[in-house]
Specification:
This protein has 178 residues and is an alpha+beta fold. The chain contains three helices and 13 strands; from the N terminus they run βββββαββββββββαα. The structure holds zinc ion.
């Protein structure tokens, strides 16, 4: 079956301690290897708001912002695919390239859950949640403003989505003009 997104044959969805479900490595994944490529539908800001009102109330959790006014979703009906189950971690093993590609930031061993930091992709959404990653550097409350944190910007350099990196660059430009 052809799905909207690509998911490496080395991973699968299993029950997770972070959320109900997560994506796990079945075999070793090398640094920089492609784990997922997100596909689906490009929708406008107006369509996003409509869907949020009716068919897809938790769309903020699953959409990727592509540019000002545009989002990518696996399915506009809110039907989730396996690539929608990547959980957040404050010490992730995967990062983002471009808009739609998830790659390993380091070697990932079989059985490890594959996670990324939601600040890598999420800037303008309106959510916050209590993080369950349980790691020593856990931020506890994750918000869609975390990308503004300079230490996270340094930590994930080269692994932010194009849109979030664009916002970081704009913010920097504004600061230097002051
Ligand atoms: Zn955490």
């Amino acid at each position: 079956m052809i799905r909207h997104s690509y998911l490496s044959p080395k991973v699968e969805v299993r029950r997770s301690g972070i959320d109900r479900r997560g994506v796990f490595a079945k075999s070793t994944i090398k640094k920089d290897e492609i784990i997922a490529i997100w596909g689906g539908h490009i929708i406008t800001e107006g369509q996003f708001r409509q869907l949020k009102k009716k068919e897809f109330p938790d769309i903020d959790d699953y959409a990727t912002k592509i540019a000002k006014g545009f989002y990518l979703v696996s399915s506009p009906k809110g039907v989730l695919e396996d690539d929608d189950f990547f959980n957040h971690s404050c010490q992730p093993n995967a990062g983002i390239k471009g808009h739609i590609m998830m790659v390993a930031m380091r070697r990932i061993k079989p059985g490890e859950e594959i996670t990324y930091d939601y600040c890598m992709t999420d800037a303008d959404f309106n959510y916050s949640f209590r993080c369950q990653c349980g790691l020593p550097n856990c931020r506890k409350i994750i918000t869609t403003r975390d990308w503004q944190n300079p230490s996270l910007q340094r930590k994930y350099r080269g692994y932010f989505s194009w849109y979030v990196q664009h916002k970081i660059d704009q913010q920097r430009k504004k600061r230097s003009q002051r």
